[in-house]
């Protein structure tokens, strides 16, 4: 473990990898400001548009900073990158820990790079701000990809909230696309609302599963199955193969219970072994089929527009609520009103009236 | 049809029924104000607490009015009724049109009244404001109940939004309870978010189904099954009985896919025929079992507290959004920013920033 860590921090940004995210934003700011020759926004923009990984990494660090000056610089860069963004395929990958997400993503990434594409791998991990860990943090698992110049791997940003992490990831996607990455893979774990968040920023949403013993459907969050464009059963190798095939039948049955998707895409169940490197081509072909279909029926662009609108309204509404509930006077009165409601001295509607009149 | 309408309007409030809701609020106001001797708030309160149906009906009409003076009067009445409310069992009944909700509710209502209880039947129908119709509008279907002094039937309030209808229904529940109704049944149809809304104001949520041909699970909104404390398969009579029994097996299997409920109640599937009046006692026993269980494990009160808190926050948040999006300056700028997002000239986050700084 000690060795692994040393290995990780020895890796350099120019190798397409950054050290695992620290949650201490001041520390980030210090690192950023301490470097003697800070590149200007324009230098970073030029670098990104040329596909320079160091410029890309530095710009993302600005996005993740809490320093107002850094954010201002980040916004200038994002604005300049916007016309060059929007040209990739964005793929979301979710699955519980242990399902082999990293191995799967590495196999998929290598497959796509062999097709002359450039892959950026990001993560949305709301737990990283609590555990101070991060999925994708252990980059040694993606050893082969790390060495490839056409791959860019970035661990999950940390943040006070999933909304904060989401914003940073959405903006990072823009920079990656401007840097020429045409395939964006976003990893997330099944924690709280993170899948919904990732689903709202990708074109194709893939649920990675294992063939377990017993009832395959037990304990699955139905909402996630409903969002999935594909369910891929990983580790379908050796002794597992038979169970994986049974699981495929079960999942196919489960998928048929849902109404037809707006995309008119029929979600597929597929087997793969990231270890044996089997079935990865099938998954990729499935994704390209989906992209062709939705670009033809114009759903692809409609969905991206909808996603943008969703993020605009989402941001507005969460900020409105945040500002309201963090107002000191409101906080005090809310407590009082909740007590009165519990004692049946007022109704929720009368209490809301009083609170809203205070702002 | 013409005859039915005549029959309905001939019914009088003192019979425990009011004419179908009109969506024209000014018309309501006129009716209310035109009556020569308007009872005072105190008179209405006294009447309600004595169980007077006419007072109850009039007070509900005040809740449903848009006239500010009526609302003020309504609030005085609600406040006085609050200490006498909260003592009933609140049951939500949902199911698609044609499933026999009215017949089922009438049968259940009669069963409960025979046990010396008083039943109020309300409805939440978000479509009523659009179609100007209303479920529970056709009271001729509940002929027997209408004649019973221990039953009170009120069609869905109309409103600009589901939130508005919901508020009115929640406040109506308080008045009904204060008037001594110990069993509140709230009917809703599977339109949009209406089930979620009703679920958040009842103790027990019942999904009414039919045994159809083929796959019983096809096309069911999974979220509704997840909310259900019971699935009752109606019209389990004659030729239908065999299919109903098969459906029961299917639904039981579906229910087992969900994690245990917080109430520690295991949702049940039950058969009934509202027409033959079979199985209604089983349904009622199930409901009383649920109430005993949740009152013992204190979930009953916890849920009501949670519901109150939910309605407080819900009201605050919908009003915050409403006020923001209905601001003329915001409206104009939002349009502009959405255009800029679509043209990739800005990000949703930068646009939100600009909009929020305007207030």
Q: What is the strand and helix layout of this fold?
A:
2 copies of one chain form a homodimer.
Chain A: H1 2-10, H2 25-34, H3 41-49, H4 53-64, H5 68-81, E1 89-94, H6 101-114, E2 119-124, H7 128-131, H8 143-146, E3 151-153, H9 162-178, E4 183-188, H10 194-199, E5 204-210, H11 222-227, E6 230-234, H12 241-255, E7 268-271, H13 280-296, H14 299-325, H15 328-342, H16 348-357
Parallel strand pairs in A: 1-4, 1-5, 2-3, 2-4, 5-6, 6-7
Helix pairs in contact in A: 2-4, 3-4, 3-5, 4-5, 4-9, 6-13, 15-16
End-to-end Cα distance of chain A, whole Å, is 53 Å
| Biggest β-sheet strands, sense, barrel of chain A | 7 strands, parallel
Instruction: Give the CATH superfamily of the largest domain in chain A.
Output: P-loop containing nucleotide triphosphate hydrolases
The helix/strand series of chain A, from N terminus to C terminus, equals HHHHHEHEHHEHEHEHEHEHHHH
User: What is the largest interface, and how many residues per chain?
Assistant: A-B, 48 and 48 residues
- Please state the overall shape of chain A, judged from the principal axes of the Cα atoms: globular
What is the CATH architecture annotation of the largest domain in chain A? 3-Layer(aba) Sandwich
Treating each run of at least 4 consecutive H or I residues as one helix, how many helices of chain A?
16
**Beta strand % of chain A:** 5-15%
The value of Rg of chain A in angstroms is 22 Å
Q: What is the multimeric organization of the chains shown?
A: homodimer
Helix content of chain A: 40-55%
List the domain count of chain A as a whole number: 2
The low-confidence parts of chain A are 1-23, 129-134, 213-219
Which structural class do the helices and strands of chain A define?
A: alpha/beta
